UniProtKB/TrEMBL annotation:
InterPro entries, per the entry: SCAI
Gene Ontology MF: a single term: transcription corepressor activity
Pfam families: SCAI (PF12070)
Region annotation (Disordered) ranges: 287-331
Domain of life: Eukaryota
Protein name, per record: Protein SCAI
């Protein structure tokens, strides 16, 4: 029975048979829409209860996508009936809310799978909401709740644009969000207006910091460099290093990646620090590469109505029928089900967990889960960007065992959440200098080298960017590490001349080098604007340098030297090959830079297995570095550079 069946006796006496049939059909349409709407809201609310780890979330996401697909198509097909005030009175902001939920589904599916194609689908829906002005009239409703929905939509849209590096769109959205927050504050006098201003400040500072080290053209516009791995032949910014060839080694791939951020004074937006943001993109292929290898059809894709007869005058979003069927039958996107084996995802990118200030119990739980989920010939990548904690007296007691006396990194701190720019460096220094006593508040949430030893039974690639990263060099003495572990360790200090320009607040130099070596060079050196020809020469010299560095890594891996077998294993993955090549580039650049000439040993990054000194002094590397320095016009800033 529909909610309108109680009207039938009285309505029937006033309607002709034909009119009654039309009225009854309208009642059925409204009732069906109401059912789909309630069902979609229930499923969407249940998403927050899904476990953050494991694979049990996949069937639930499939059901949610399926219901939202039906709901979206249903409101498109019957928009005129639903918008009639005599039937349902569907408002445009209600349509926008449905579209926003679909955009959120795509975004969360991206977070679960790390496939950038779904991020683009989220962007398409969010863009359509703005282009079609679905939330335009929420202020007329005089409802603060509706205004908050619009503000949240803008914040989510900005996050998606940030991950897609659409900075021009972000600038426009920021202007609109600023006006909306002012309007919200003046109209409703809410108690949370200060919190929205903090969100606005975080976005602005984050974007300005990310754009700070771009290389500019002569007309003042920045040259854009790809932030993700591009495997297409002929790409001039992210060449794919050649794979190693020596030995009978089964190729491995990075299956799971855990990214941890806890620098007290580092700029962030929401729960994403600058370092995490850069490393996240470094572990993804570009959308074109991912799309070319996709195993199954994506979830429903919004498209414009080609007929021009849609409820919005041909401008309504329309879900493609084939994509809808694919999402229904193939368990949303790339999820496929095989008999007796549950759901499996074909992933071109590593699956990532983003952990901002996790407690040690949370971090170890995620590491253990990723360790458990590792398939054969797969690698767990652990990236930590956090303040170091080291005892004031690092000399081990006679009864000390393990590496506890070396300290570790702080994963969560007792300081309250504040805007990054308002946190003083003294706070971070105090945390890093805390004595490692049993009652020290930060020592509880500290990751020590020994904490990782149980997980060295499977391949682990560790990237540690911290003021106490050197403590993790002790892992190389573990028997498991000598077979299954590779570590890249950041400098523990920087020369005095770089303390401000390369401080942790605007992102660490080590992470920036692994993410984009050319941008990292702008931290070390002052670049003059480039014209098109100079930029072409610079990118050509950069490609040559990265190719040489990758070849040197491959030569070490193919050799019979110490640690070669470990490098040979990890270098079969394209992401790890790029990181290893850029590590060699960073060592080569810093060793020749004037500021590092007489710097302490802690100013240089370390690795194990160690890259032989002969690699850093190789003539091909020296020649490629000199070509890059000359093309950049920064020879005066390098010791011994011609």
């Amino acid at each position: 029975m529909t909610p309108y069946d109680s009207w039938l006796p009285s309505r029937r006496r006033r309607l002709t048979p034909f009119g009654y049939c039309l009225w009854h059909e309208c009642c059925f349409l409204v009732s069906e829409f109401h059912y789909l709407l309630e069902k979609s809201q229930q499923l969407f609310a249940g998403l927050r209860d899904l476990p953050p780890t494991g694979r049990n979330w996949q069937p639930y996401f499939h059901r949610t996508f399926e219901v939202y697909t039906k709901l979206w198509k249903y409101q498109q097909q019957h928009r005129a009936t639903l918008e009639s005030t005599n039937n349902y009175g569907l408002k445009r902001w209600e349509i926008g809310e449905i579209a926003s939920k679909i955009g959120q589904l795509y975004y969360h599916y991206y977070l679960r799978t790390s496939e950038t194609n779904y991020l683009h689908e989220s962007f398409i829906f969010y863009t359509a909401i703005r282009d079609r002005h679905y939330f335009k009239d929420v202020l007329e409703a005089k409802s603060s709740a509706l205004m908050i929905k619009k503000l949240r939509y803008y914040a989510r849209f900005i996050v998606v644009c940030l991950l897609l590096n659409k900075n021009d769109v972000i600038r426009t959205l920021l202007d609109e969000l600023t006006a909306l927050i002012d309007e919200y504050a003046s109209t409703f006098k809410p108690t949370d207006s200060a919190e929205w201003n903090v969100v606005l400040s975080e976005i602005t500072v984050f974007l300005e910091s990310e754009e700070q080290h771009h290389i500019l053209s002569t007309n003042g516009t920045p040259f854009m460099l790809p932030n993700r791995l591009v495997t297409a032949p002929g790409n001039e910014a992210t060449p794919l290093p050649r794979p190693v060839s020596g030995g009978a080694v089964s190729p491995v791939r990075v299956q799971e990646a855990i990214l941890v951020g806890n620098y007290q004074n580092q700029i962030k937006f929401s729960e994403l620090t600058l370092d995490m943001y850069r490393m996240l993109q470094s572990l993804e292929r570009g959308p074109s590469a991912a799309g070319a290898q996709q195993a199954a059809a994506p979830p429903p894709v919004p498209q414009k109505n080609p007929s021009g007869n849609g409820p919005d005058g041909g401008d309504a979003m329309q879900v493609d029928d084939d994509a809808s069927k694919a999402s229904t039958n193939a368990a949303v996107a790339t999820a496929t089900k095989t008999a007796g084996q549950g759901y499996h995802l074909h992933r071109d990118n590593p699956h990532k967990y983003l952990l901002y200030r996790p407690t040690i119990s949370q971090l170890l739980m995620y590491i253990a889960t990723a360790f458990k989920d590792l398939a054969d010939h797969s690698v767990l990548l652990l990236y930590v960007s956090a303040d170091g904690i080291k005892p004031k007296d690092a000399t081990p007691a006679p009864s000390a065992t393990g590496t506890h006396h070396l300290g570790g990194v702080v994963t969560a701190t007792p300081f309250p959440r504040r805007l990054a720019s308002s946190v003083s460096t003294a706070d971070a220094a105090a945390a890093a200098d805390t004595t490692d006593a049993p009652d020290a508040p930060v020592a509880v949430n500290c990751l020590y080298p020994d904490d990782l030893v149980p997980f060295l039974r499977k391949p682990l690639f560790l990237i540690m960017d911290s003021t106490n990263s050197s403590a993790y060099a002790a892992l190389q003495h573990s028997a498991f590490a000598q077979r299954h572990c590779c570590c890249l360790l950041s400098p523990t200090e920087l020369p005095a001349g770089l303390a401000g320009a390369a401080g942790a607040e605007i992102g660490n130099l080590f992470t920036l080098f692994l993410h984009s070596p050319l941008r990292a060079l702008t931290v070390l050196c002052e670049f003059s604007p480039f014209d098109a020809a100079m930029w072409s020469n610079l990118t050509g010299a950069y490609v040559a340098l990265e190719t040489v560095a990758a070849d040197l890594v491959a030569n070490v891996a193919d050799s019979a030297g110490p640690g070669a077998s470990v490098l040979r294993t990890f270098a079969t993955d394209p992401f790890l090959r790029v990181f290893l090549a850029r590590f060699v580039m960073m060592r080569g650049v810093l060793a020749r830079h004037a500021l590092f000439r007489d710097a302490p040993a802690g100013c240089m990054p370390q690795s194990f297995p160690a890259i032989p000194a002969a690699v850093m002094q190789a003539k091909p590397l020296e020649d490629a570095l000199q070509q890059l320095i000359a093309a950049a016009g920064i020879a005066s800033q390098f010791a011994g550079a011609a």
